[in-house]
């Protein structure tokens, strides 16, 4: 039909554990927003293993390749099923080089910084210490080694991503986090390339900070940060630190972005302990929807969604138990949907 032809299709992966519950909630809100998206469901994780005999079926890969955008619930990777993590496998196969993790203080959430934090960590996702190459433990088990790899190309595209993100979202400052004083080759190359890229964005303030100092500064004065860009290992640690600053995983979204595909998700896992009870907090996935709308060039809709989430938290309207509320996943989603 003509209406559908005008709609953009995204791949939807309902996932495992609480995944289907929070996805229902997220799509309920997205439908209420009426932003012209339609969904193509694809299986991955335990559900896919049971239905199709594999964790990451070819049809799912094709769907993501075709639509280029996926909204994904948490997936469980059973031990001994081919790869160590489906999420890592997806990042590898689609070369999703940028892991983008916003951390923002929200009202009525347990946080040490109730209003000061509004930052985004941009983590390089394909190289650095996590390439898995050169990992060796000597035969006697006394010496372990690991190869790190940083490339000009990898550094350039992640730093460029961070500055473009600053431009497109109206943010003012990018902090390049490194350890070039000690890791002179790898972190040194990253910093050198970052300076070159920063020079091409004169309207955006750029500063450099050593990773250990960054951790201290984040805990003492998080309001000084806007966008942080860094290599894989530092980014992994810092992005979780930042999630902790604003009250933990229940409100932490993440995006994995490559040149040909982007996958948006909640940072938390499948939470089997509360699966099926209808009480999971859908906020992290909804905030990932906000990131997706920004990425799709719909910033006004992303802002509208985030404002509805904030207003619902402020009103303490039908919040889930993890936020101290008496509501459930769907009541929370409906309260948000009524404000979009
Ligand atoms: P996985 O094996 O998939 O990582 P997990 O149990 O480790 O699953 P986490 O997300 O790491 O899942 O959950 C850690 C704790 O936080 C659990 O007690 C879980 O119930 C809780 N939790 C995680 N996500 C949510 C959510 N969206 N709403 C409420 N509680 C959550
Ligand atoms: Mg976990």
UniProtKB/TrEMBL annotation:
PROSITE patterns: IDH_IMDH (PS00470). Pfam families: Iso_dh. Keywords: Oxidoreductase. Its EC number is 1.1.1.41. SMART domains: Iso_dh. It is an enzyme of class 1 (oxidoreductase). The keyword Oxidoreductase applies. GO terms for molecular function: isocitrate dehydrogenase (NAD+) activity. Gene3D superfamilies: Isopropylmalate Dehydrogenase. Residues 9-336 form the Isopropylmalate dehydrogenase-like domain. Belongs to the isocitrate and isopropylmalate dehydrogenases family. This is Isocitrate dehydrogenase.
């Amino acid at each position: 039909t003509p209406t559908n032809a005008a709609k953009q299709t995204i791949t939807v992966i309902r996932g495992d554990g609480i995944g289907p519950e929070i996805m229902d909630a997220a799509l309920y809100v997205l439908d209420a927003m009426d932003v012209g998206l339609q969904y193509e469901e694809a299986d991955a994780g335990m559900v896919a293993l049971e239905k199709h005999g594999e964790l990451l079926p070819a049809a799912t890969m094709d769907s993501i390749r075709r639509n280029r955008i996926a909204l994904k619930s948490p997936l469980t990777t059973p031990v001994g099923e081919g790869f160590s993590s489906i999420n890592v496998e997806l990042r590898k196969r689609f070369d999703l080089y940028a892991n983008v993790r916003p951390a923002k203080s929200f009202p009525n959430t347990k946080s040490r910084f109730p209003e000061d934090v509004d930052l985004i960590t941009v983590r390089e996702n394909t190289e650095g210490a996590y390439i898995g190459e050169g990992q060796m433990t000597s035969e006697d088990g006394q010496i372990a080694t690991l190869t790190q790899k940083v490339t000009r190309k990898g550094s350039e595209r992640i730093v460029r991503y961070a500055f473009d993100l600053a431009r497109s979202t109206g943010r003012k400052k990018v902090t390049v986090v490194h350890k070039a004083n000690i890791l002179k080759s790898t972190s040194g190359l990253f910093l050198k390339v970052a300076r070159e890229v920063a020079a091409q964005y004169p309207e955006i303030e750029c500063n450099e900070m050593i990773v250990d100092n960054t951790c201290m500064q984040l805990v003492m004065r998080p309001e000084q940060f806007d966008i942080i860009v860094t290599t894989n290992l530092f980014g992994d640690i810092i992005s979780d630190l930042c999630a902790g600053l604003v009250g933990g995983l229940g409100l932490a979204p993440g995006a994995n972005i490559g040149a040909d595909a982007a996958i948006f998700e909640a940072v938390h896992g499948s939470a089997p302990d509360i699966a099926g009870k209808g009480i999971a907090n859908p906020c992290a996935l909804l905030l990932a929807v906000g990131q997706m709308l920004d990425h799709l060039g719909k910033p006004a809709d992303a802002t509208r969604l985030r404002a509805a989430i904030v207003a619902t938290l402020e009103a303490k309207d039908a919040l889930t138990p993890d936020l101290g509320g008496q509501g459930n996943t769907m009541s929370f989603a409906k309260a948000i949907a009524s404000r979009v």
